[in-house]
Specification:
Elements: H1 3-13, H2 17-33, H3 70-82, E1 89-90, E2 93-94, H4 127-130, H5 133-139, H6 143-155, H7 158-174, H8 186-202, H9 209-212, H10 217-232, H11 242-257, H12 264-282, H13 294-313, H14 320-336, H15 364-376, H16 389-397, E3 413-414, E4 419-423, E5 432-437, E6 457-461, E7 464-467, H17 479-485, E8 494-496, E9 504-506, E10 509-510, E11 516-523, E12 529-535, E13 546-554, E14 559-567, E15 572-579, E16 585-589, E17 592-598, E18 604-610, E19 616-621, E20 623-624, E21 627-628, E22 630-634, E23 637-640, E24 642-650, E25 653-661
Antiparallel strand pairs: 1-2, 3-4, 4-5, 5-6, 6-7, 8-15, 9-10, 11-12, 12-13, 13-14, 14-25, 15-24, 16-17, 17-18, 18-25, 19-24, 20-21, 22-23
Length: 685
């Protein structure tokens, strides 16, 4: 059985009967639509009835330029100037061809994806056919062109607009309806439509804009084809994650901004309905995204804000429930950040953007919060945000509508998501920040972007990673690395009998889930915080097998104590991993690791890590057979780091205690080490 066939078998098993029926309908529609394919070089058929007077429905006034923060404008223009110099990266890969790209070539493998084949017959999961398909798709989201369009809007320099026009004409001509790789994934069409809306909006005063868009048969055909395709082939059932939201946002933005077609009003109503339903389905009541992948929380919240602005500008605002949900998502995003403004790294992350109107190197979380503050208002406890180009432009298109009822303090517990942040008080010195994972494995039956990381923790000292989540690194092309970065051994938790907590069934699918349950979050002695949770994902190996974890954070010592209890009915091998941050060095001797790192103040800091004595400990760094000791700072990049691994066996019950002592910045009265504070583990639903 081929890998692709195996994937389809596993995928079918994760579907409900209703979803199977829906997908059969999609397959029949693909058969009917195949005869509508337009091949490169074919004459294009007019798209039908068009509004006689066409223009962008919601332009942004040039007078708004005075509202842009000068520093943000300078960074944006400097980024745009990197494009003519061919100094551009996409997903960590240099794109020296960015001024004249081959829209089908994968810069990672050199493979050229199909450009003329019927999209429905292209297996985009087969790297021998497409290369690294994400690298092929990414440039065609046209984020680099929104940067250029914004630079023109700021400067009136026609060089930027000329490049945008040339590349759009190139892309439109090379990608007629249903031909090639760029018609194979709905999320790509949705994000691309959003980019086109903003390119047209920002070029509104450019003399050539009408010839490029509303009077251009190619542009009109592409806008119609994209919306028609997304209306017909939606991500549904087990695929209705962030893809469904991005598709609906693209449809909504295009229908609102380009109401030029007979179908536009129907498309708008349908897209609004789909978006409101998808956002509600993808979000816990607390505001946390159900994929439990923090970077996708940011991406989906950003998509929602863009849609909110487009709908408001068109005079068809989203409903109050959706507005309230986006407020909770924004507040959750702000609450998760550490004292330096860095977000957690739970689950997958590929740096996806709903829209790019700032320097690509600007912190995307800062951009999100600035946009949120401008559109919906900020809480007093939010970290300071600096308005950028995108946040100012969103506000210019749809004036801010501040929501009054907000939490008075930053929430630390998101119980429905099993996500908790323990952090020390500012009075205790540099912040110790600890994210604890005790929730579901991921979203929907395939949990596409979840990792096998139940009970894993991340720990930072004054923003420096001590115990680090490894990140994502890749999606396609390197299956061994894809598996490692989302494996149990790749996270700060415990692996049993050499198996992941969940069984992998493909790069975006799990055959089984590893759900965890939080047992309690309580105050400990003298203001310490205690979190406790458990999971039984290894019950497939032994019905009695359970992993309990308790984390105690005491900022006054300061100290972090992690107590793990493994219970089973027969002998098992276990392996505990502590992945240190890339800036941390470790000297391991007899189960004790002396840690060193340079703090944000430039001074050398030290930590003392006492590891469970019942295990045999070893240090690993940058190993490849198999992968171990790696950290991915961003998608497409990996660097070696130190991983401490403890191995042993147990029968019955084994308790393991890890103690991390951290530096103090000023003298405090001597205190004895606090005893672990137990949380009742017996009463479980």
């Amino acid at each position: 059985m081929s890998r692709s066939t195996q994937w389809y078998v596993h995928r079918l098993r994760r579907m409900t009967p209703e979803e199977v029926i829906t997908r059969v309908g999609d397959q029949l529609r693909q058969v009917r639509w195949a005869e509508r394919q337009v091949r490169p070089g074919d004459a294009w058929i007019p798209v039908g009835a068009l509004h006689p007077r066409r223009a962008i429905a919601s332009p942004v006034a040039r007078a708004a330029r005075v509202l842009i923060a000068p520093a943000a404008a300078r960074r944006l223009v400097a980024a745009a100037d990197r494009l003519p110099a061919s100094d551009w990266e996409v997903l960590g890969t240099p794109r020296p061809d960015v001024l004249d790209p081959d829209w089908f070539r994968d810069p990672v493998t050199g493979t050229r994806a199909p450009d003329a084949a019927l999209a429905f017959r292209i297996d985009h999961r087969d790297e021998s056919v497409t290369g690294n398909v994400k690298s092929v798709w990414e440039l065609s989201r046209h984020h680099h062109l929104t940067v250029l369009a914004a630079a023109w809007w700021l400067t009136d320099d026609t060089r930027y607009a000329d490049v945008v026009a040339a590349q759009l004409r190139s892309w439109w001509g090379a990608n007629p309806f249903l031909s090639g790789i760029h018609w194979t994934s709905g999320i790509e069409l949705g994000v691309r439509l959003t980019s086109w809306v903003w390119i047209r909006r920002l070029l509104d005063d450019w003399p050539g804009v009408a010839d490029l868009f509303e009077d251009n048969p190619q542009a009109l055909a592409q806008l119609h084809w994209h919306q028609e395709h997304l209306a017909a082939f939606r991500s549904r059932g087990s695929s209705a994650n962030n893809h469904a939201i991005a598709e609906a946002v693209g449809r909504l933005a295009a229908a609102c901004a380009f109401p030029w077609f007979a179908e536009s009003e129907g498309w708008r109503r349908e897209a609004t309905r789909d978006l409101e339903r998808a956002l509600a389905a993808n979000t816990f009541p607390s505001g946390i995204n159900r994929e439990l992948a923090t970077d996708y929380h940011r991406f989906v919240t950003e998509l929602g804000l863009v849609a909110l602005v487009e709908a408001e500008a068109a005079g068809h605002p989203l409903d109050d429930a959706t507005r309230s949900l986006l407020v909770r998502s924004l507040d959750a995003a702000a609450a998760l950040l550490d004292s330096t403004g860095r977000a957690p790294r739970q689950g997958d992350g590929d740096e996806g953007r709903a829209l790019l109107l700032d320097d690509p190197d600007d912190d995307p979380w800062g951009v999100l919060l600035a946009c949120g503050a401008g559109v919906l208002g900020a809480c007093e406890w939010w970290p300071p945000v600096s308005p950028g180009v995108m946040s100012t432009l969103l506000g210019a298109v749809a004036p801010a509508s501040v929501v009054a009822e907000r939490p008075e303090v930053a929430p630390a517990a998101f119980e429905d998501a099993g996500l908790h942040v323990l952090r020390t008080s500012p009075t205790d010195g540099p912040e110790i920040w600890c994210r604890c994972d005790g929730g579901p494995h991921g979203f929907l039956s395939i949990a596409a972007h979840g990792h096998a990381d139940a009970l894993s923790i991340e720990v930072r000292h004054d923003g420096v990673d001590l115990f680090v989540d490894p990140g994502t690194y890749c999606y396609h092309g390197e299956p061994e690395w894809r598996s490692y970065f989302r494996s149990t051994r790749g996270h700060n938790t415990v692996e049993v009998d050499g198996e992941d907590q969940a069984r992998e069934a493909g790069p975006f699918m799990w055959a089984e889930h590893a759900d965890a349950v939080v047992d309690g979050v309580d105050p400990g002695p003298d203001g310490a915080q205690v979190w406790a949770a458990h999971h039984t994902a290894y019950a497939r190996l032994d019905a009695a097998l359970c992993h309990d974890r308790e984390v105690l954070l005491d900022g006054t010592v300061p100290r972090l104590i992690v107590t793990d209890t493994l219970t089973g009915s027969r002998e098992h091998r276990q392996r505990m991993s502590w992945h240190l941050g890339p800036d941390v060095t470790a000297e391991l001797l007899d189960g004790v690791a002396e840690l060193s790192w340079v703090g944000r103040n430039g001074e050398l800091q030290h930590g003392h890590l006492r590891l469970p004595y019942a295990l045999e400990w070893s240090a690993h760094r940058g190993e490849t057979d198999p992968p171990l000791g790696w950290y991915s700072p961003r998608f497409g990049s990996r660097v070696p780091t130190t991983t401490l691994v403890g191995e042993g066996s147990f029968t019955g019950t084994l308790t393991l205690r890890t103690v991390l002592d951290l530096p103090r910045t000023h003298p405090r009265p001597h205190r004895t080490e606090p005893e672990p504070v137990g949380i009742a583990l017996g009463d479980r639903d």
